[in-house]
Amino acid sequence: MAESLLAALVSLNGPGHYFHWHWIDISYANLTVIALMVVTFVAALFVPFPGRRHKKETK
Amino acid sequence: MSESPDVKVAPWTGPQRPYDIIKEGTIAFVVVAILTIGLALVFSSPDDPQVTVQQWSTKAPIDFAQTALAELNGTSGTAQYGAPYNTASSGQQLGPFTLAKWLGATIPVNTVRDFVVDPLTDQPATPALSSALTQWKGASATQRTAWVDAYTKASGKMTFTNGTVSVPTNAAGPVPVMINTLEQMARSGALDQALVTQSGFYTSNFTLPLLFLADGSYLGDLAQQRHLLGTQWGMMNETGNYPGQAWLWLYTFWYQVPPFSTSANADVQVWGIMMLLSLLLLLVPFIPGLRSIPRWTRVYRLIWRDHYRAQGA
Amino acid sequence: MSSTEIDRQWTTRLRHRVAHRLPPEKMLPDTQPAYVASWIYVFGVTTLSAFAVVVLSGFILALKGPQWWHVSGIGHFVNSLHLWSVEIFFFAMVIHLWGKYFMAAWRGGRSLTWVTGVVTFLVSIATAFTGYVSQTNFDSQWISTQAKDGINSTGAGSFFNVLNFGQMLMWHIVLLPLAAVVLTGLHVLMVRAKGVVPPFEEKEEAR
Ligand code: HEM
Predict the structure, then answer these.
(1) Main-chain dihedrals φ then ψ at residue C196, nearest 5 degrees
(2) Is B114 among the domain residues?
(3) How many independent structural domains does chain B possess?
(4) Atom of ligand 1 minimally distant from the CA of C121
(5) Do residue A52 and residue B233 have CB atoms under 8 angstroms apart?
(6) How far is C175 from chain B (nearest CA, A)?
(7) What backbone torsions phi and psi does residue A27 show, to the nearest 5 degrees?
């Protein structure tokens, strides 16, 4: 019971999918991870950090 | 000398604000733990079963027998490797430096003895095998070479029928019995055991079976189907659709481009480059130019925008 | 016993130095400079948290030994925790690295913080690699037989045998994690001792 609950909901097994462009050859899984990293980094730069801004600066 | 704004900054004497780092740490830990559990539940993790010599010789009997022959006639990858396994070649070199050769053959592997003769000697003797081994062990080196050469010449016509490896030659002395017995041994699973137990009862060292497996084409074929070859940027890939070691992207990148993609010394050249680049990353704070890019790009203005706005006000 | 004799003791001197460099207010501060107001600052502590999950899930795998996860559903789930926390660990660490680079966070005597960070990054890569070759499955067979060529070509293969499972497992669960923990500890202590790096001074604009 516990064992079957712990199986994958979405199976990532089976043939891999690859993005192939000229000599670039990368799995969509890795591509997703890298894209998420860039998005997260950019978001960390732009999304306002809660807390400070409003109180002190408006004074 | 170091009045550079990329090196110096005066200690902060401006305003402070409340910041609860223990609370921040606790929240971060809980969030990461929940995210990990979620990803594990949703995606699980890959576990492609191990390959055995038994499976290899059963699925690809000719590939196995040809590899066994390559171990015997000295043409296999391992037989010709050089250090650290033997002195058959000087190995890769970086300019004038043969690093591997200098450090020596510290993990000696003799492919004839370790992959063929010793395992066969471990087998329960049959009359045919006993006399083949007696013949082999009693023969001169020239005689052995003549037998192996005769077998090698005919091996293009190797067949595997009714569970027997055969090659059309009568000049190969004990070699046909040796190769065929090794094939039977492999298919029964006994060779898997014989290769790991050469150092005795307990073992945790799989150098011999891994080298033997890697000398054949079977393992590489499976890896190619899974997109794991070095030429497929395989180092950063994982089986299935799982993310792999994406952080190896730059390391595996070099292998895809000239001159490394065609170099016989690619491994040591790429290692050299990566060590150099790692050193550059390590020394960024001390390298003029490299350490100024942050100031020039002004990305920091986004990070500290509240500060600069307050300062401007 | 004179007080100068006590003052000269190694023990006393060490205590004074630690207390001077790392007083409790610096170790566990309750405020931060006003400029510490960006999401980029959370990636250090996120890396630290992911590292903790990696180590904890590794401990559970260690309880039952290296083959357990192939035969047990629970074991496989723990392996999944280990894999995904590693992915998060590297994810957060690389963003942390980018962030610290663009802040030039080595300024003001913080270069050793950067250096220990880079060494930790390299040690983490080696730790992950030895983990991949200790999986006792197809992956580890393939990765070890491939990686041996790179490592052998540098000469390191003569003492670091990636085909020796016992050796790789020991590196993966003892030596490299220990190095990573010690380095991370030093890294974080240095940050605490020095405080978070101030912004670039833009005099012309500010005055
Ligand atoms: C195991 C990996 C690492 C952990 C757990 C870690 C953790 C941390 C933590 C908790 C902080 C303080 C909070 C913050 O500013 O984010 C910090 C600061 C810092 N980290 Fe890391 N770090 C790691 C790897 C790295 C790497 C790879 C680099 C860069 C190459 C790096 C460079 C720095 C620098 C320069 C600071 C000082 C920040 C400042 O003064 O503002 N760290 N690290």
Answers:
(1) -75, 140
(2) yes
(3) 2
(4) 27
(5) no
(6) 17
(7) -70, 150
